Amino acid sequence: PAATATPAREVLFPAGSLGPGQHVGLMGADGPGKAEIAGAELGRVHVFCDDWAQASHGGECAAAVEAGALRREDVVQLGDVLAGTAPGRASAEDITAFDSTGLALQDLAVALAALERAGELDLPSLPL
């Protein structure tokens, strides 16, 4: 797996660069002109996003749709996978990409999970 969080204007993952079983989480390309993966690469892998309405207007999915490499029906929302209404990874050989555009609710859920597990970890703390 790989995760990106860059303001890249040149793709980091060109067409054909991801192989069987690979996953990439794309978090940095959040506006026009930014790109971490080629639209053609998104067009050949299983694509997931946090929210289609948001992803289709910014980020990797928007650029791929504009280029004609990706269609709405090619993209699965993560919430649908978690709710069991859409499939996730079908096999260990699937190539997957997640276009994260950022949802406050997901950020809060991650923060809550981290807070709940903080006592299990040997982390430094600051008195408040």
How would you summarize this macromolecular structure in one to three sentences?
29% of the residues lie in helices and 14% in strands.
Description:
The chain has 128 residues and is an alpha/beta fold. It has 5 helices and 5 strands; from the N terminus they run E-E-H-E-H-H-E-H-E-H. It has helices at 39-44, 52-55, 60-66, 78-83, 104-117; strands spanning 2-4, 23-26, 46-49, 75-77, 96-99. A 5-stranded parallel sheet has the order 1-2-5-3-4. The termini are far apart.
Distance between the termini: 36 Å
**DSSP strand content:** 5-15%
What's the arrangement of strands in the largest beta sheet? 1-2-5-3-4
Tell me roughly what share of residues is in helical segments: 25-40%
Sheet with most strands = 5 strands, parallel
What is the count of helical runs?
5
In N-to-C order, the SSE pattern is EEHEHHEHEH
Helix and strand content put the structural class at: alpha/beta
- Inertia-based shape: globular
Average per-residue pLDDT, rounded, comes to 87
- The low-confidence parts are none
Whole-angstrom Rg:
16 Å
Please give the number of β-strands. Answer: 5
Please write out the topology.
Layout: E1 2-4, E2 23-26, H1 39-44, E3 46-49, H2 52-55, H3 60-66, E4 75-77, H4 78-83, E5 96-99, H5 104-117
Parallel strand pairs: 1-2, 2-5, 3-4, 3-5
